[in-house]
Amino acid sequence: MRYLVIGAGAVGGAVGGRLAQAGHEVVLVARGAQYRALRDHGLRLRTPDGDRTHPLPTVDGPAALGELRADDVLLLAVKTQDTEAALATWGPVPVAGGGTAAERLPLVCAQNGVESARLALRRFRHVYGVCVWLPATFVEPGVVSAAGTPLTGMLHLGRHPHGTDATAHRVAADLERSRFEAPVVPDVQRWQYAKLLGNLGNALEALSGPVDSEEAAALFARVRAEGERVLDAAGIAYASAEEQRSARGDKITLVPLDGVPRGGGSSWQSLIRGTGTIEADHLNGEIVLLGRLHGVPTPLNELLQRLANTFARERRPAGSMPVAHLLRRADEAERTGRGGAGGGVAFVQEP
After folding, report:
1. What are the residue boundaries of the Ketopantoate reductase N-terminal domain, all occurrences included (predicted)?
2. Interior/surface letters 128-148, b for 16+ CB within 10 angstroms, e for the rest
3. Residue 261 vs residue 69, higher pLDDT
4. Distance CA 331, CA 326 (A)
5. Distance (Å, whole) CA 129 – CA 198
C-alpha cells in the first residue's frame, strides 16, 4: 500500500517518517512553508534513536499525483478545523480503474477529537478512526520531533463508527513494523472519547504553559471532571484511565531531545506557529456541545474554548496568561455558570 499523508505536521510527519523508515511507500501532503521545506529539503524526523532526513515525494494537493492508485491509503492528519477542506479536495479525485477516492479508498483519520471521522463518513464510504497517542512536536518547517521510546506511539485503530476489517489489520501491521503499537479494536470511539478527556487540557496548556504546577493540575482536574459528567449524561462510553495506563504500560517513555524537553501539545504548537486557528472548538467545544444537548453546564470548557480561540485569532503568545489569572476566571465562570461571560481576555502579567 502507498500512504498519502494529508497534513504532514507533528502526527502526520512522525507517522509518515516512521512508515518510510520501515520501507513503506509514502507521499507527504503539506501547505505553505511546511510544503516548501519538505519538498526542498526532505522531512527531518528527530527521535531518541537519532535524526534522519527522509527525501519523500511531497505535494500540496492531488493535482500533482493525477489518478490515485487502487492501493492508496489516505491518512488524514490535519487539525479538525481543516478537515472539511481536505475532504472536499481529496474526495472527488479519480482512482485508477474507475471511481473516486471517496468511493473506493480507505480514509484513516489520525486526529484529535471525535468529529473528523463523522464528517468524513458523509463523503467517504470507508472511514477508519484512530486514537492517537503520539507525543510529537512540529514548530519549525521541515522538522518533526517524536520523543517516545522504545515505541514512537500507540494508535488504536478501527472502522468508524465501529467494527474491524482486513484493511484495518493491514494498516495496523504496517504501523507495527514502523515503531508503533496499533491495536485493532471494534470500539475505537471508546478510546477516542477517553483521549478527548485528556485533550481538554490542551487549551489550558496553550494559555498558561505546562500543566505542572499544583494550581494548574487542580484546574485541569476540574475541567476533566466536567467533561466526564457530560459524557456520562450522554451515555457515551470511554476507556478508563486505568485501562489506558495498562494498555500503554512502559512501552512509550518520553526522552528529551538535544537536552530540551518537549514544549507542548498540539494547541500550544498552533499558537507557537501563529497559525491563526486552534482546535479548541473540537476538543473543549465538543464537551460544550454535548453539555448543551444533554442539559449539563460546562462553564469551564466554554471558558477555555473561548480564550483559546481568542489567543489564536489575535496571535497571542503561547503560555502568556498566568495560571492565577486563569483560575480566577474559572472560579467566576463556575459561580456564574457562564464560561463565555466577560467579553475580553485582558489580564495583568504577574511575576
Report:
1. 4-152
2. bbbbbbbbbbbbebbbbbbbb
3. 69
4. 9
5. 17
Spell 24-45 as b/e; 16+ CB within 10 A means b: bebbbbbeeebbebbbeebbbb
DSSP percent split of the chain into helix, strand, coil, nearest 5: 45, 20, 35
Q: Is residue 6 within 8 Å of 75, Cβ to Cβ?
A: yes
CA separation for the pair 195, 133 (Å, rounded): 8
Whole-angstrom Cα distance, residue 159 to residue 234? 22
Give the span between the Cα atoms of 114 and 342, in whole angstroms: 29
DSSP state string for 5-16: EES-SHHHHHHH
Residue (of 196, 193, 111, 146) closest to 19 by Cα position: 146
pLDDT of residue 257: 87
Tell me, what's the pLDDT at 250? 92
**DSSP 8-state assignment for residue 69:** P
Rounded to whole angstroms, the Cα distance separating 272 from 66 reads 35
C-alpha pair distances (Å), 236 with each of 128, 187, 191, 290: 19, 12, 11, 10
Identify the residue whose cell numbers are 455558570: 337
∠ CA 155-51-10, nearest 5°, is 40
Residue 173 main-chain phi, psi, to 5 deg: -60, -40
What mean pLDDT do residues 77-89 have?
Answer: 97
Report DSSP letters for 254-265, one per residue: E--BTTB-----
Average pLDDT across the chain, whole number: 94
pLDDT of residue 347: 46
Measured CA to CA in angstroms, residue 130 lies from 43, 212, 253, 280 at distances of 23, 28, 20, 19
User: Which of helix, strand or coil describes residue 349?
Assistant: coil
pLDDT, average across residues 258-282:
86
18-39 confidence digits (pLDDT tens): 999 999 999 999 999 999 999 9
